[in-house]
Write a structure and sequence with these properties.
Two copies of one chain form a homodimer. Chain A is 31% helix and 27% strand. In chain A, the strands form two sheets. In chain A, strands 1, 2, 3, 4, 5, 6, 7, 8 and 9 form a nine-stranded mixed beta sheet that branches. Chain A is globular and about 70 Å long. By secondary structure, chain A is α+β, with helices and mostly antiparallel strands. Chain A folds into two domains: 4-274, L-amino peptidase D-ALA esterase/amidase; 282-404, ArgJ beta chain, C-terminal domain (Ubiquitin-like (UB roll)), CATH 3.10.20. In chain A, helix 2 (90-105) links the parallel strand 4 and strand 5.
Chain lengths: 408, 408
């Protein structure tokens, strides 16, 4: 199957979608930045979403969940600057956001998906949204995905947007998405929001299933403990304008759709990791030849989430003990005596551990490899056939600075 | 029961123990520091130890475990500068260290406990130990615990030693200990070593049981994932010189001994947390009125281990969202709507969350409270009677610096 990335692709790349983002001054200290996003489809879409597993949740999630009970949505409204979580009036305000968007777009408020990201436990100021919703609705365009991507950023330093295209039943199908999330050093931390649009024809049930499959090997692999902020939301809308036969079961078309969606989600997930708070380097941990997929994933996540591994990558220190130690406490089923560890980058690979034991290697070459901006840590378990990849970044002074003074 | 701390107490405070520490230059770049420690008792002791749960283990643990099978030990040899882990010749060298100590002290090599801490995956140079063992054995004294405490330090900035005394059967019993461990920001990282000596008369079986009870609420509460470095070792030796009736069952004397041992271990554990790598502040998380002790402990450990909470403490940022978020992803059984959160320090307490919702508070007072060096985060669950405390520190630039370049 041939899946292609679209240059400058975004959530508005599929037919029928418009989007925009404006500065509503929700966060007083950030008055110059876009902080309110809108995504709209010219017709109701089949839709699905998955959410954080944290027990502490924003009320926006409760509202979105309710609105998606019928599997239909037509718009997304999202703000940055305030998470609307742990507030007494959170539910009321999340519903109000949907009503405002519905009014401005002349659609049913039950067809609106709502999401928020930012500081927790401080009341969301609703006036900035009331005052700017019409301007926002009037500004949406078929190439406005990029403004929406900007409006959902918090500590992100770059916008995350991408789109892929492929053929289905002789029709060209496009899937595009935007994402935000930057507190990914230790996942528990940062809200991840991602909104995906497609012109494929897919039932809401199959959309949900495809979304779970794609997230499992993409967004969920940027995290240590799964989706655990209070606000994480990954939503998808499919409007059917591509004209393919509707996907209503797990047939070959479904598989093709999942493959394309997975490629898109992996791309966005890697961008999240690379732009982790304070990140200087993008790190992939590849675990090969594990007994089971669960073991491979568990080890990849543990290694990528280890503060010691992250700090060693920051310092370009080819310490194999840090990797072995993380594998050892991952709780997964491994035979320590079979583990090989490599570091890889554009400067080549280097073996630092063989059969669970440290080996002699060129410190000079290792340093050269680890000074690159993209590093792969390969853990060969030599004990089965399952593989997994997890995505992360290094731990830097800048991460500490950002999170030492997040609210101000 | 009256348990008193002894001023300048150490592992040599109980009768019959001598200790010392010398510079053997095991780590070439650290030639000026003590790096080889010896603890000796004039007679064989009943003894017990508990170890890391990491699958990747130093061979020193295998040797110590074998030597303690009969519940008897008479000396401890420990080095810093090299963990003797993940090396092909680790077992041989750990055994050699015991033989060297036994020869120098004229005791049975099976009665020697061995431990190492430092870099993983690089062969332990044995010559420095061979060359210095006699000088070390000749230097041990009844007030040499402090030199041993110094010799086991790695990135620790202060020595950790303490001793407590209490009455048992009309006899004065003393328990003293030393500890090291500084990579405690995220526990998985730093080797924790602690050696405890007592002149109480206690069977090795009861010693093991007492040690497990004490560690469970002390050393294990400085950690996020339990004992997970490759080398963690907590060992205790009891020589019976105090003259109490031997403790061989869980009677009142056992309970008194556990209470005193727990007090000592909590004191040493707090010192480990306060001296966490790069730490600027000591943080306690107290969880009150949980449904079960498991829930209380799980939440306390999750909060204290959260990088976001740690970074917020570094920045004196009274962010209640960080605490609620950590409680929410702890995996424990909580009713979010009942949670209250306070920050406390010498400057007073401040309520930042009531019934799971953020409350208005004085940012000025909050800042003043969080700028202190000892902070307590109190999580009131209002949902039961179980309580727990966990110990940690803030996440600082210095932590990143230390771990970015650990090996050099």
């Amino acid at each position: 199957m041939d899946i292609k990335f679209i240059e400058n692709g975004s959530v508005t790349s599929p037919q029928g979608f418009k989007a925009g983002g404006v500065c509503a001054s929700i966060k007083p200290s950030n008055t110059a930045k876009r902080d309110l996003a809108l995504i709209y489809c010219e017709k109701p879409c089949s839709a699905a979403a998955i959410f954080t597993k944290n027990l502490v949740k924003t009320d926006a999630i409760a509202v979105t969940r309710k609105h998606l009970e019928n599997g239909v949505a037509q718009a997304v409204i999202a703000n940055s600057g305030n998470a609307n979580a742990c507030n007494a009036d959170g539910l009321e305000k999340a519903e109000r956001m949907c009503a405002l968007a519905a009014d401005a777009l002349n659609i049913d408020e039950n067809d609106v998906i709502v999401a928020s990201t930012g500081v927790i436990g401080q009341p969301l100021p609703i006036e900035p949204i009331e005052n700017n919703i019409n301007r926002l609705a009037g500004s949406i365009t078929a190439d406005g995905g990029t403004n929406a991507a900007e409006a959902i950023m918090t500590t992100d330093t770059v916008k995350k947007e991408a789109a892929v295209t492929f053929e289905l039943d002789g029709k060209t199908v496009t899937i595009g998405g935007i994402a935000k999330g930057s507190g990914m050093i230790h996942i528990n931390m940062g809200t991840m929001l991602s909104f995906i649009a497609t012109d494929a024809s897919v039932s809401s049930e199959m959309l949900k299933s495809a979304l779970l499959e794609a997230a499992d090997v993409s967004y969920n692999m940027v995290t240590v403990d799964g989706d655990t902020s209070t606000n994480d939301t990954l939503a998808i809308m499919a409007n059917g304008l591509a004209g393919n036969a509707e996907i209503t079961e797990k047939n070959d078309s479904y598989k093709a759709f999942v493959a394309a969606l997975t490629l898109l989600c992996k791309d966005l997930a890697k961008r999240l990791a690379a732009d982790g708070e304070g990140a200087g380097k993008f790190i992939i941990c590849s675990v090969n030849n594990a007994k089971t997929e669960k073991d491979a994933k568990g080890i990849a996540k543990t290694v990528i989430g280890s503060s010691l591994v992250k700090a060693a990558m920051f310092g370009a220190d080819a310490n194999c003990g840090r990797i072995l130690c993380a594998v050892g406490y991952s709780g997964m089923d491994v035979d320590v005596k079979k583990i090989d560890v490599y570091y890889k980058s554009a400067k080549g690979p280097i073996l630092v551990c063989k059969n669970g034991l440290g080996v002699q290697f060129s410190e000079e070459l290792a340093k050269e490899i680890l000074l690159e901006n993209e590093i792969e840590i390969t853990v060969e378990l030599n004990d089965g056939e399952a593989c997994a990849e997890a995505y992360g970044c290094d731990l830097t002074y800048e991460y500490v600075r950002i999170n030492g003074d997040y609210r101000t």
